[in-house]
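User: what does the whole thing look like in 3D?
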Amino acid sequence: MPKEIETPRPTNGELALLAALWQAGPSTVREVLDRMGNKEVGYTTVLKQLQIMTEKGLVQRDESARSHIYRATKPEQDVKRSLVTDLLERAFAGSSASLVMHALQTKKASAGELREIRALLDSLDSKGKRS
Amino acid sequence: MPKEIETPRPTNGELALLAALWQAGPSTVREVLDRMGNKEVGYTTVLKQLQIMTEKGLVQRDESARSHIYRATKPEQDVKRSLVTDLLERAFAGSSASLVMHALQTKKASAGELREIRALLDSLDSKGKRS
DNA sequence: ACAGATATACGAAAGATTTCGTAGTGACAT
DNA sequence: ATGTCACTACGAAATCTTTCGTATATCTGT
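Assistant: Here's the predicted 3D structure for the full assembly of 262 residues, as structure tokens:
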């Protein structure tokens, strides 16, 4: 049996910082802070959050320079997937179709996006046939 | 301009109770408790939660009988939609397509569900053309 | 060497969520 | 009428999350 999958489930605040790290790559506290444009927040707040996230294993830091450099440890895809899984279980009884329907009705996707989704459906179909 | 949409954003615990109410309809504390099969939790915990949710307006209660009867005030669809919207903004930069892709890759939907999703895509397409 | 700017460390307050214990009240059977 | 049982009210502990102030260390230019 494969090892139990570890599911990072960042909170709102943590997710905002992770987003900055995913977008810009490994960054110092100040760089992350500067990227949080709209959100008014103190320097030490971001620092503390990143320290806590380091303890939790959500990020790692390189302390070789005076300004420590933080990077997200979990791939963006994995974290997002676990967030989706979480919502799926909590609110949609595990039915991804139900979630998808809500998502598509909530905010209209562009024609291009809809095409992408169709393509994905096609590939899932062929997979389904194969197995 | 239409009135600002009110977005109920229940927490995890609240959502579990709402699920019970959506599933079974208006219920007493004990009925809700009995429905929480797997989750080990005290009677007064559920009671207190429902009381708090009443203050928040997530549920209403009928106090005419000795055992108060609670019912969810917000339609299941609305609450789920706002949960999806929330996740969408927090983690997927508002791109429902991106969320949908993650959802479909996370847990495979049945062939029937995939058909439903296609049908939904079709209807969105025709809407898109019209507007 | 010193002043000023910039970093990290640490503690702790403030808020929100979750949980439960205790007390009080009403119903009901004996 | 009285003991038992189920219910609500209330307060508060326990966690978690978020935020920031203060202390201390390090760099940088003059």
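In plain terms: The beta strands of chain B are 59-62, 69-72. Residues 18 and 71 of chain B are 8 Å apart (CA to CA).
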